[in-house]
Write a structure and sequence with these properties.
Layout: H1 11-27, H2 36-57, H3 62-88, H4 94-120
């Protein structure tokens, strides 16, 4: 596995970003945009997937990154549950549901695999700082 230097390189984060963009698009139109509770909650859960991956990667220890990845995985599950609500309420079509659900599920599986990799390599550090010269 290549060394990850920035959280933006993590495949699960890239997938979570796609999910977040899709959630914003879907929840910003029609009746979905008027259901403020569901719209805001599904947006928060998709944002949480991205944010927790980033926050974990930037944390101090491998244990913390695994903890934050667990939170990101939980948020991906929350987003999947909320997609069912949107489908059941007729806010999104079956095709839209399938696309968004598959992204959330993919992110969850990627996060799980990343966590498993980190757990199997306890000697690794998650943060690989690029050498930067600071001028004071």
């Amino acid at each position: 596995m290549a060394t990850i230097k920035r959280f933006e390189e993590i495949e699960a984060w890239k997938t979570a970003r796609q999910l977040t963009n899709m959630v914003y698009k879907l929840s910003g139109t029609g009746r979905f945009s008027k259901d403020f509770a569901l719209r805001d909650q599904i947006r928060r859960s998709s944002i949480s997937v991205m944010s927790n991956i980033a926050e974990g990667y930037e944390s101090r220890t491998q244990a913390l990154i695994i903890e934050y990845l667990g939170r990101a995985k939980a948020s991906a599950g929350e987003a999947r549950a909320q997609l069912f609500i949107a489908l059941d309420q007729g806010y999104i079509s079956q095709d839209q549901f399938d696309l968004a659900y598959n992204l959330a599920d993919k992110a969850s599986r990627q996060i799980y695999n990343f966590m498993a990799y980190l757990k199997s390599h306890p000697e690794l550090r998650q943060v690989r700082e690029v050498s930067i010269e600071y001028n004071v």
